Task: structure prediction
Amino acid sequence: MANNYRNGTTHRSSLNKAERPLSVNSNTKPKAKSFPPSGLRKSSPSLATAASKDVAGVSGRVRVAVRLRCRNADEMVADADFADCVELQPELKRLKLRKNNWDAETYEFDEVLTEFASQKRVYEVAAKPVVESVLDGYNGTVMAYGQTGTGKTYTLGRLGEEDPSTRGIMVRAMEHILADVSLETDSVTVCYFQLYMETIQDLLDPTNDNIAIVEDPKNGDVSLPGATLVEIRDQQSFVELLKLGEAHRFAANTRLNTESSRSHAILMVHVKRSIEGRGMMPSGENGNNNHIIKTLKPPIVRKGKLVVVDLAGSERIDKSGSEGHTLEEAKSINLSLSALGKCINALAEGSAHVPVRDSKLTRLLRDSFGGTARTSLVITIGPSPRHRGETASTIMFGQRAMKVENMLKLKEEFDYKSLSRRLDIQLDKLIAEQERQQKAFEDEIERITLEAESRISEAERNYEHALEKERLKYQEDYMESIKKLEEKWLMNQQKQGSETIIIGSKDGTSTDRGSTVSVAEELVEVKKLLMKETQSRKAAEEELNNLKSQVAQWKRSEALGNTEILKLRKMLEDEAHQKKKLEEEIAQLQSQLLHISFEADETRKRLDRSGSDKIPGSFDSLMNQVRQTQLQDSGNGEKASIAKLFEQVGLHKILSLLEAEDADVRIHAVKVVANLAAEESNQEKIVEAGGLSSLLILLRSSEDETIHRVAAGAIANLAMNETNQELIMSQGGITLLSMTAANAEEPQTLRMVAGAIANLCGNDKLQLKLRAEGGIKALLGMVRCGHPDVLAQVARGIANFAKCESRASTQGTKSGRSFLIDDGALPWIVQNANNEASPIRRHIELALCHLAQHEVNAKDMISGGALWELVRISRDCSREDIRTLAHRTLVSSPAFKAEMKRLHINY
Ligand code: ADP
Ligand code: MG
Result:
């Protein structure tokens, strides 16, 4: 019978028969029995066959069973005098609904369950096929519909803890599922919730009281991701969960001020099964290939979902308003159930539009009616004629539901996650295997290598052994042949001996034998000696060769060493030669220097002697005179010798001698440089080679006055050139010359210093610096010695300075009184203006004229007595140009004119 109840048929005729209530008189044979057995049974020929069928889907009508509850205690009393409103014909799967005592309407159902039907039987006919489908990977629904109190909850939710025979569909379904799945590879999870006034509350977590329905946009699958999902591993925990859900349902309904009959309770059981061995290649040619193919083939999972729905009491549709419910509540309660009714009507009539979205219940059950699920509906009715209307309504609902056709679809998919895990494991295995093989390979290589090595060494040993054997054999052969030869020789000897004995003695044969033996021994001895000798000769020869090669090597290295020594010797000789040459050069130079300095001294002495009565007009001419005298005295030969020296030795060497350790060398060197400096053509070279600096250094570093004198003379000669004048100044020349002047005792030294400063005084650009560094004061300081040569140079310096200053004043670059007056030169000027030595006088007259040209000096000149000197110059000076200059100056100066007027000088 149970099998007959299965869905999965494409047989349409049965539907036609169920379309309308059958009349008692109808001849139509009930067709419920004719429902073909399901092709989805576990006992189906093969899973693959089932799967191939499932791809396109299998049509499956909603199956409806009607269950009658027995009279309860109330009804026993209240309806005691009345017959039941229904009469069941289970064997015909018919139900008769009495209209009155004489008329009834007959309805055919898929299953008709009397009040005596056990819970087990109800499960088997109404739920078991659905559960089996779920286990096979389909969605399934078991739903109870009926008036409150007719046994919906009894049918579905009874736990049966006191009496196991009363266990309801939920408990039995889970038992069935847990018995069928493998908890190692499959999983069973449940969620349990109630729908009340269009709100979904989690019965496993009361705080979760507004769960959203989520629809998969691709396949329309509905799910409740917000609901608590509990994995079930044993029956007991499931029963506990149902109890917990029931308790929460009770609490929730108390809180919401309702009864369980007003809410829909829904249990969802998700069964996920992995299907091993499906879709694999047929085992055949290559086991390995098959293994890999099997590995790469993603495992298949089937996800069946069982939905058990304990609906709210159906009477609410009609009676809610009259039983004091709020309008809102009534609407909401009605909403889901009436929407379900509407959907079932639409589906039953094949209407184009099914208002699935009108309520949450219909959205939740979208797959159960007109979807892909196998659905079984149990309509529960009571026997009481007082509720005939409700019962009729319930029956009509069931009748319509029977017309709803579903299209069953296998919920099967590839489990890529599991494939990935499996591949990871496989990969790890392969890596480990590869490593193992690599190691084995390496070990094998090592083993082979070792074996080969041992074989080689064995072969070598064998070879050596054989060689040794061979050698011994040859040795033996050799010894043998020697022995034979010896024997032969012995025999020959014996022959000869016997002959000799016969000839030489007539003793017995014993003597002959004795001598033969001793000869043989001797022979052996001699041989041994010979061998030893040969060996030692060989050793000596080897030693000799060794020594010879060593000697050859030593010879080679000795030859190399000799070449090196020769080279070094040559270098040493060259160096010595060079040194000798240099020493000769130095000696020559020194002798020349001595000679020249001697000559120079002589010349100077001569000059000194004649200088007092014949002072030359300027320093230039003085130096010229020196040169002239030198040339006159020593002739061309001397000049030539200096030039020759210059060429031969080189200026740098001469200059380097200025710093020589030896004081004499230094003096000679400075004299040579001074002589060279007198020659204008040499001056530039000397300065370029650093001679000027060296001379200035000598002024500072040397304490020898001769050196001071000669160096100052050389500087004076170099100071004739304007560029050199600037160089001298920039190198602190004034300070050095002043210092030299202050320390000098000899007039000739002062003359040279004064001459140098006088030359510097003639440079327009150096006026300020020269004065600032004490040049004028130094000049004036030197007049202390009174020597006319010195005074003449001082006067020349003052005249030069006055001339440049006058030029600067005229050009406007100098203002104010003359520095000469500032530095106190005027008294000495006035005092020496009429000096008897004409070079002094001439220079001073010129200086006075230059000073007088500027009115700013007039006052000091007047007070210093210079006016008288100017007047005298303008009248008495032997040089006409100076006379005229003085005159012009006097007449052009207002101050002088005024003073002369005051003094009544007629001019
Ligand atoms: P509903 O859920 O439809 O409102 P219930 O399942 O609560 O109805 O049943 C109401 C009462 O009737 C409960 O006491 C229940 O035990 C009892 N009952 C219902 N069906 C049966 C049955 N088939 N056999 C015994 N008692 C039943
Ligand atoms: Mg109930």
In short: The chain has a mean pLDDT of 82. The pocket of adenosine-5'-diphosphate (ligand 1) is lined by residues 69-70, 72, 146, 148-154, 261, 313, 380 (CB under 6 Å). The CA atoms of residues 295 and 423 lie 7 Å apart. The radius of gyration is 75 Å.
